């Protein structure tokens, strides 16, 4: 058990070192393949440095799936791939048309309802989309690790911020964001939906309530990261919701680092200068509590943003290489899905347990303690092996001496 946990932890450490406005969950064969792997770490999702397909791949997939459907019209799975490919290439109306056809054939199929709900949301029909998400949840509440429920919370949060004049970003750029443990924005909305709100005018927080809030935030972070992985990692709305979740709690370093980066990335995804400035201010608030042990001083915000931009460049370079491979395979006439799986899905699996993954992600001291523990364990094992070897050598020498003495004591007759 210890060896298994150790190997999983070391793998996560390696992963951490290499590390439309509203989109959410999609269901196709890639989703199913990646569900068997843990989600990439938060920084990779924020920067875009994770496994994803190029636009050319989805154009290729449309042609491939149309050919498969023509040959096997009764097979349902290719329709999911086709619809998602249409959605990924900006053809949402066609994606809806495909799924509506599927709904007429099987009105209670989970994949159809989940995709159709998401497509309606992407198309701006939020209320209708939520109805289909509700239907999908009723049929399979645990699919995507229960992510559809959080997709619904995000959409309802957006609806709560929509006025007659439309939707303005940030969704919540006015909340006080300088205190520790504050529930702001999406986190505050989530607590209100789950009856986890801290009572007003309360001098101290109920330990049991705090425990439930922290557990819910960890769960919500996992689900929002999943929406970014299988939807649109560039979505300012999802990035803002993620930043609000990471902002919550008493952790000073990892959470606020990620919150600040999420808000910064959201600021790069909007064109309006006032919106950019508000997201930038939110990032500054989140970074105000970040401490840099190496410098023994507060990490200045301009330096943090400079580092983040370098992380973005590194992630973009890596994704560009993946996209180039896909274009190469298409030009060579290869089965791109098969080749992609051979090259990228054959990697070792990250940690699947969400609580272990989250704890490793946000707790650098814990990782250091585990690493030190493994080093000490290695030293102890080395000492034990050395002692065992020394004992073996001593016993061997004594045995040789005993045999020599026995030979000397033998009579001449015995020696013949």
Notes on the structure:
The chain has a two-stranded antiparallel ribbon with strand order 1-2. It starts with a helix and ends with a helix. Helix content is 69%, strand content 1%. The chain contains 19 helices and 2 strands. Helix 1 crosses helix 18 (364-408) and helix 9 packs across helix 11. It is mostly helical and 416 residues long. A hairpin with a 4-residue loop joins strand 1 (291-292) and strand 2. The chain folds into 2 domains: 2-362, no CATH class; 366-416.
Give the helices and strands, then pairings.
Blueprint: H1 2-17, H2 29-35, H3 42-47, H4 55-71, H5 77-88, H6 92-105, H7 110-122, H8 126-139, H9 147-161, H10 185-193, H11 207-230, H12 236-247, H13 254-268, H14 273-287, E1 291-292, E2 297-298, H15 301-331, H16 336-344, H17 354-362, H18 364-408, H19 412-415
Antiparallel strand pairs: 1-2
Helix pairs in contact: 1-18, 4-5, 4-15, 5-6, 5-7, 6-7, 7-8, 8-9, 9-11, 11-12, 12-13, 13-14
The SSE string, one letter per element, is: HHHHHHHHHHHHHHEEHHHHH
- Largest sheet strand order: 1-2
* Helicity level: 55-70%
The fraction of residues assigned to DSSP E strands is under 5%
The helix/strand class is: mainly alpha
> Roughly how many Å is the radius of gyration?
28 Å
Number of domains: 2
Shape: globular
Q: Termini distance?
A: 60 Å
Mean pLDDT: 79
- Strand count, sense and closure of the main sheet? 2 strands, antiparallel
Helical element count?
19
Q: Total number of β-strand segments?
A: 2
Low-confidence stretches: 1-20, 31-40, 348-367, 402-416
């Amino acid at each position: 058990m210890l060896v298994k946990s150790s190997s999983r932890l070391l793998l996560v450490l390696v992963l951490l070192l290499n590390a439309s406005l509203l989109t959410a969950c999609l269901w196709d064969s890639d989703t199913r393949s990646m569900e068997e792997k843990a989600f990439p770490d938060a920084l990779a999702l924020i920067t875009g440095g994770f496994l994803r397909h190029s636009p050319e791949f989805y154009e290729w997939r449309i042609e491939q799936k149309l050919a498969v459907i023509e040959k096997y019209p009764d097979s349902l799975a290719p329709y999911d791939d086709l619809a998602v490919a249409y959605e990924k290439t900006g053809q949402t109306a066609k994606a809806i048309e495909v799924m509506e056809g599927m709904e007429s054939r099987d009105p209670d199929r989970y994949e159809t309802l989940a995709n159709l709900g998401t497509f309606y949301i992407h198309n701006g029909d939020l209320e209708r989309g939520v109805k289909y998400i509700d239907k999908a949840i009723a049929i399979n509440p645990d699919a995507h690790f229960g992510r559809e429920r959080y997709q619904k919370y995000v959409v309802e949060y957006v609806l709560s911020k929509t006025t007659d004049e439309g939707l303005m970003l940030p969704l919540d750029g006015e909340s006080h964001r300088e205190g520790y443990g504050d529930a702001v924005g999406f986190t505050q909305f989530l607590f209100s939906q789950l009856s986890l709100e801290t009572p007003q005018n309360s001098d101290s927080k109920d330990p049991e309530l705090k425990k439930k809030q922290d557990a819910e935030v960890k769960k919500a972070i996992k689900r929002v990261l999943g929406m970014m992985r299988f939807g649109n990692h560039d979505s300012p709305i999802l990035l803002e919701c993620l930043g609000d979740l990471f902002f919550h709690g008493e952790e000073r370093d990892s959470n606020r680092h990620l919150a600040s980066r999420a808000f910064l990335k959201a600021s790069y995804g909007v064109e309006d200068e006032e919106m950019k400035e508000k997201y930038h201010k939110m990032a500054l608030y989140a970074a105000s509590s970040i401490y840099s042990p190496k410098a023994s001083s507060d990490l200045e915000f301009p330096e943090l943003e400079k580092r983040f931009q370098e992380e973005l460049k590194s992630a973009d370079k890596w994704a560009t290489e993946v996209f180039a491979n896909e274009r190469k395979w298409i030009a060579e006439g290869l089965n791109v899905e098969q080749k992609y799986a051979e090259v990228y899905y054959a990697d070792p699996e990250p940690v699947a347990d969400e609580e272990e993954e989250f704890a490793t992600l946000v707790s650098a001291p814990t990782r250091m303690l585990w690493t030190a523990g493994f080093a000490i364990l290695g030293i102890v094992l080395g000492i034990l092996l050395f002692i065992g070897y020394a004992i073996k050598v001593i016993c061997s020498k004594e045995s040789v001496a005993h045999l020599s003495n026995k030979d000397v004591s033998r009579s001449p007759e015995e020696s013949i």
